[in-house]
Design brief:
Length: 130
């Protein structure tokens, strides 16, 4: 039974417009959404495939950060890092979070509690302009 949320057509149009505006200014895009979209999972956004197809059509989208799936997850599709942060509700000390630092050539995720630290490298052609 499907019970997760979805992103409507007006919101998708807005997302496209924002990504395209960033593209005009040579800006990279990080997307933050409560629901994961990739890889496939039972906790994903209802129209996750549509959203993956939408954002992966733009080379300036480099990451989709999400929550909702408390076990966490990570996958990369093309140039996009899809990171689902682990939930804090199953953590013995009731604290799990991360700080993401943005660099020209990478995103550094410093995890706390059960969240893992990791480095998400950006392809040289997709690096941030500074």
């Amino acid at each position: 039974m499907a019970w997760n949320g979805g992103i409507g057509k007006d919101q998708i149009s807005w997302i496209r417009k924002e990504i395209e505006e960033a593209e005009v200014h040579s800006e990279k895009v990080l997307i933050f959404c409560h629901f994961p979209v990739y890889p496939d999972g039972t906790h994903n956004l209802l129209n996750c495939n549509e959203m993956v197809n939408t954002v992966s059509g733009y080379l300036n989208v480099i990451a989709w950060f999400s929550g909702h799936y408390h076990a966490g997850n990570y996958a990369r599709l093309r140039q996009i890092h899809f990171l689902t942060f682990e939930g804090m509700v199953e953590t013995p000390d009731s604290n799990s979070f991360a700080i993401v630092k943005v660099f020209t050539d990478r995103l550094e995720v410093r995890g706390f509690g059960r969240e893992k630290s990791r480095i998400l490298n950006l392809e040289s052609s997709l690096r941030f302009n500074r």
